[in-house]
Write a structure and sequence with these properties.
Number of strands of chain A: 7
CATH superfamily of chain A: Hotdog Thioesterase
Largest sheet of chain A: 5 strands, antiparallel
Strand order of the largest sheet of chain A: 1-4-5-6-3
CATH topology of chain A: Thiol Ester Dehydrase, Chain A
Radius of gyration of chain A: 16 Å
Distance between the termini of chain A: 12 Å
Number of helices of chain A: 3
CATH architecture of chain A: Roll
Oligomer: homotetramer
Chain lengths: ~140, ~140, ~140, ~140
């Protein structure tokens, strides 16, 4: 039983995303992480809209970003998103963002999301659709 | 009967809002216009939340921007928002954005908003709350 | 002699680009227009970096946006960018943005850019690299 | 000798900063942290432009965000920025963001910045302007 799933997606850097140093403004990486998470979601059926159908939301409660290398306008990036399985009622992802031209590592990051009902109530156990999703992908459910 | 109402508000330029030329990226002015419109709304009781309470939304359907002067990081701007009264079921604003330090005109703009119900239906006549709002501010209701 | 050049490019809508109505916040279309302009630039050799190599910048001085239809998260858009030739020392583009799923027209727009030297001096005649670019693409140079 | 300096600043939430849940999109907090850092810089003379005058840049290399509470459109926030003194050639800040209306804690965060010369060379010791800045504010220089 594997406990990991991975997605890789690519993106161009927009002119509006670079700062006065002509490199990506550090806050914009949060968008790229979301791009990675959504590309993962499309591949494995765990996108924002898939989750919302189950009357659950998954807000980010923790985000750690480690910047390694600048990315400039004109560059293209590779976003690797890896699902980190946990028994807790959380969704954890690890990310690596590379500059596509030379595969230099630009950023590592980690996000933690929790499950809340649409009225905002925090769930302390995994919702059933998520347990089923884990089984489907052969991930241990704890 | 006056047919105009005006608001003036100020804002600092964020580092994340300037581009690789160290001047405000042109798309960010749309945020400043919304800042102006919302400051107007707070002053006169026509903010986004005031409108939404009446189960109506006012999407922007037209936006014209004329750029006159660069604004740099470290500058402060003055946003002047002027209500342009019309008999049509529309909200029209004209804007002027100045650099605060020397009052140089940086941008003129105009926006047109329409009224739609929360299900998306376009309204061809002014909703009653808006007629009342006009009367309160002594604007001709056409 | 044709006086038009066109590019078509596609883009996904990011979660961070929709507003509390779950539709694209109107200011974000300015990014899509820039995406279209840069895709055009890559196809025809008139990108931001191509221009900058010639020690010239092309700031946007006018931008008109006409909103026709909402675009929601999960939608994909088609951005069509059309070069409008003019004898004046300006770059003019017209844009159409469609929802990819049903090709409904979501936005029409027009931008005007001028040429300035890197010290900010406005150019009243076309820079030579731009005249050559026009000749290369068989556009009348006025 | 105190080893801490603090700034407190306030900000309104923009309509364009909330997501389809009508709460601040989590990535936008990075802007508020930068607002806090810049307000700190204006109070104590360590702003982006102060630093840049010394031919040094201070890119963020690490950013940790912990989300505690939603913030909605219409809310106002208080951003508290605290300088964490260290002997290492780094600038460390801790942040707390509160909802102004009830002072509920919405976010805690920490950032680490390093010193690089304008050509990108990383500095392993504090630049002299920074040592002087520390002395001026009575911070131990380690």
């Amino acid at each position: 039983m594997s406990d990991t799933l991975k997605n890789s997606t690519e993106s161009d850097i927009r002119f509006s995303e670079v700062d006065s140093m002509s490199v990506v403004w550090h806050g914009n990486y949060v968008k790229y992480l979301e791009d990675g998470r959504e590309a993962f979601g499309r591949q494995y059926g765990l996108g924002y809209l898939d989750v919302y159908k189950n009357k659950v939301m998954t807000p980010v409660v923790k985000l750690d970003l480690n910047y390694k290398q600048y990315i400039a306008y004109g560059d293209r990036i590779i976003i690797e998103t890896e699902f980190v399985n946990t028994a807790a009622a959380k969704i954890i992802f690890k990310y690596k963002i590379y500059r596509a031209s030379d595969r230099k590592l630009a950023l590592t990051a980690k996000s933690i999301q929790v499950f809340v009902e649409t009225d905002g109530t925090l769930l302390f156990t995994n919702p059933s659709f998520y347990e089923e999703w884990k089984k489907k992908w052969n991930l241990s459910v704890g």
